[in-house]
Amino acid sequence: MREAEELLLAIRRGDQEALEDLRAHYPSTKADAAAPTTVTLADAQLILARSYEAPSWDRLVECCHLIDAICRDDVNAVRSLVETNPKLLTEDALVRKSNWGPPLSYAANLGRDAIIEALYEMGARDLEHAMARAVLQSQIGTAVKLHGFMGATAPAQDALAGPAYTLSVSGTELVFRLGGKAIDGSGRRIAPVDIVLETDSRSPAAKHAILQMYADHSSEAAPSRLRSRHSARVPGDHFLVLIAIGCEDDALSIGRPSAVAILSGVGGETADVTSIGIHTEDVPVLVL
């Protein structure tokens, strides 16, 4: 309510940003004719709601109550809101489209297991998205619970992407434990190495651990395509990630630019393999 009141005052005093909100979100049949001094509190509430992509003020208030209840882990409040408006089960909790998803997925981000159970009993079925969010947020117990609700099916092919972005070691471990793959049935790498290397999350140790897991599970899946692995640790917390490009075991060598491409070095620029002047016995490398 306070935000709507502040918006109303800003419109009435002719604040340029507030007037732009008026023109953008007030009903088009009234916006041109509306004088700042004639705008009411109800008008300001509608403008504010539409700025958050809610169709009405009441829907925005309902959204705020729902998010607050989930954050407080108030199962009874969440249940009451959904019983009053069953559409909440499938609509985004934030009203506008968001990665956090409907209420069950939103609760999974925060590890609110009791709320998840209640919403599931009430018919919520955004389980795959909820599990992906739980893994991304390192909510491991929650992810395991959701996996059970899903019938313990194998993780989706892109299940490693979320924990790769957040550098969640525990999330990555769980995906592999539940049957996730680093290489598909045809031998194609699906482990998201690029996401691990390019994410804006910062943790060299977590990057090393996740890349090592990719290597471990890649060699288990396709040993004929990979050379023996070494530690990913390089002095100064740098590491090299080498990808075989259509080569057999005996062709994979750091001295063979045609066989190997260097994707990245943490803390340094991407380098061409021929310009490094090193051999595999000199610098440990992680081969994926």
At a glance:
The protein is mainly alpha-helical and 288 residues long. Helix content is 48%, strand content 5%. The protein has a 3-stranded mixed β-sheet, with helices on one face.
For the largest sheet, list the strands in their spatial order: 2-1-3
Distance between the terminal alpha carbons, to the nearest Å? 55 Å
Shape: elongated
* Helix-strand pattern: HHHHHHHHHHHHHHEEE
Oligomer: single chain
- Mean pLDDT equals 78
Estimated helix fraction:
40-55%
Detail the poorly predicted runs. Answer: 222-288
In total, how many beta strands? 3
Q: Using only CA atoms, what is the Rg?
A: 26 Å
Biggest sheet statistics: 3 strands, mixed
How much beta, percentage-wise?
under 5%
What structural class do the secondary elements suggest?
mainly alpha
What do these coordinates show?
- The protein is mainly alpha-helical and 288 residues long.
- 48% of the residues lie in helices and 5% in strands.
- The chain has helices at 2-12, 16-25, 28-31, 41-51, 57-71, 75-84, 103-110, 113-121, 127-136, 140-149, 161-166, 169-177, 193-198, 204-221, and strands at 240-244, 260-265, 286-287.
- Helix 1 (2-12) crosses helix 4 (41-51), helix 6 (75-84) runs parallel beside helix 8 and helix 9 runs antiparallel to helix 10 (140-149).
- It is elongated and about 70 Å long.
- Mean pLDDT is 78; it is low at 222-288.
